[in-house]
Structure of Competence protein ComGD:
Amino acid sequence: MKTMRKESGFTLIEMLIVLTIINVLLMLSIPKMDRLVEKKQTDYFIEQFKDDMLYAQQYAMTHKSSVIIVFYDQQPVYRITEESVFGRILLHRSYSDKLQIQPVTLQSPLIFLPNGNVNKSGTILVTYGKQTYKIVFLLGKGRFYVQKL
């Protein structure tokens, strides 16, 4: 008498159904990744910008010299120099061309004086996609803050 062995495993149809379900779930999550990438790039730029401004202020106070930050309209770049706009370059930072820096009340250049204060107060808007941040520079010890709009 022959005994039939039962084979264990998945059929081709079952595997195709599982792969289809996985593909549908992946397709639903891809649009959310774009928003996540946009948010992370903006957050990274804001953190980097804050660090650069604190560096400029610290450099001005420790070296007892003015530090100038120039924002360029035509290209996604800002530059930090010592003493004058054409002075020694301390930092040259480029950023994504999708990100826009718009001076609202703060005009370029921003100057940190040797005592750490800014020469004038003002506001800058940083926009990337649907996200907008307001960076406000206050008079007095070069304080500034970042606010998400």
Remarks:
- The mean pLDDT is 84.
- Residues 12-63 form the longest helix (52 residues).
- The domain at 12-148 is CATH 3.55.40.10 (minor pseudopilin epsh fold).
- The CA atoms of residues 31 and 119 lie 44 Å apart.
